[in-house]
């Protein structure tokens, strides 16, 4: 059993991973390719990464990783009453990068089996078992996507320089702000170097955000990656698009380290020594 297959049985009780949700207001703009490559890029840091295909009708995570699922979230839903983290772990598909995947159902009609209770249970179990859970969603703000967004620690909202994508993204961002989730949102401008009358640098102002992540337009590499089922961060790691995704992964890990490793109070003896030292100093 290799490190990627090993269960994190030694994780502290109550430890929760970080949940990253990738969504978009328009289809066909690279959401699944970004989610898959980000997940694989994170495994380079020797941490436990899982993926959930949250596009329950037409999910493509398994295709993008050239995986052939024996089990899907449909099987989890059918046994949800008895599901624990170890049973769920046995239903995940293991990619050779180390990413563990819970695939979407094989048929669109099975999506109705994935209830809110199933989503809650699955996310909580996967988060208890891994450092990161990356969720790829369907297009727009469907009920189930909103449930993922509510549970997320960070939301990547993907757009491009196309006018329709920008218009719909603006509406999505405004809706997320009304719902109180805007502080978790990070805008990602995909294909940011494509030919367009709109400049990538103008998009944050247009959408009313302060910062954005820019992913360059290397459409052929991204398209080939999806078609052959090999993430470009594995076989095209020196390309600009791969470097941009690795930078995203670095930023995520830095953010998590800052939140996890804040300065702690010293031990009781250290605090006592500090107080004693202050008292002695004040005497002289």
Structure description:
The protein is α/β, with parallel strands linked by helices and 284 residues long. Helix content is 43%, strand content 13%. The protein is built from twelve helices and eight strands. The chain has helices spanning 31-43, 61-64, 73-78, 85-89, 116-129, 143-151, 163-178, 203-207, 219-228, 232-235, 240-260, 268-283; strands spanning 18-24, 49-54, 93-94, 100-102, 132-137, 154-159, 185-189, 212-214. An eight-stranded mixed beta sheet has the order 3-4-2-5-1-6-7-8, with helices on both faces. Mean pLDDT is 89; it is low at 1-13 and 261-284.
- How do the helices and strands follow one another from N- to C-terminus? EHEHHHEEHEHEHEHEHHHH
The span between the termini is 63 Å
**Can you list the strand order of the major beta sheet?**
3-4-2-5-1-6-7-8
Radius of gyration: 21 Å
List segments where confidence is low: pLDDT < 50 over at least 5 consecutive residues.
1-13, 261-284
Helix % is 40-55%
Assign an overall shape.
globular
Share in β-strands: 5-15%
Number of strands: 8
Mean pLDDT: 89
**Tally of contiguous helical segments:** 12
Major pleated sheet: 8 strands, mixed
Pairing-aware structural class of the strands and helices? alpha/beta
What is the gist of this entry?
By secondary structure, this protein is an alpha/beta fold.
